[in-house]
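This protein record is not my work; I was only asked to verify it. Take the sequence as given and treat only the tokens as open to question. I have pasted the whole thing underneath without changing anything:
***
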Amino acid sequence: MRKHQENIPERKRIVSVIGTSTATPDLYELARETGRLLARRGCIVVCGGRGGVMEGVCRGVREGGGTSVGLLPTSMEEANPYVDLPIVTGLGELRNMAVASAGSAVISIGGAYGTLTELGFALRQGKRVVGLRTWNLRDEEGQPTPMLTAGSPQEAVELALAEETR
């Protein structure tokens, strides 16, 4: 039996948000606003589910009426209080690959070395990557990576959701 295409609801876009677990108040607010804007655009947000930028983005998603998924390293106790769907991966830091892989685009806010690994995974996979006060990466020849740079949460969301032009 064949389903009619018009009866299938459109899938929501998934965007991964990565960043430091020890965010300054300013980075936390950038993440919160980014989450709120993504939720208002109907996106599902995937992150590492812990504190800092991850908590800020989940809080913003909740305030915007959206859904956040947190891919946790080892236990449910690591989940921030705003993550809607905490998923324990049991992978430790290796879960960074899953976070980077989950979204059709990745927004990076701040970040330490864990964020750097996620950026590497996302760029390796050819994802649209948008940086907001994060790492400034260059390749082995000193050339900038194809990462886009945003000056505000609004610009980060617009760049992440822009149609592919490649």
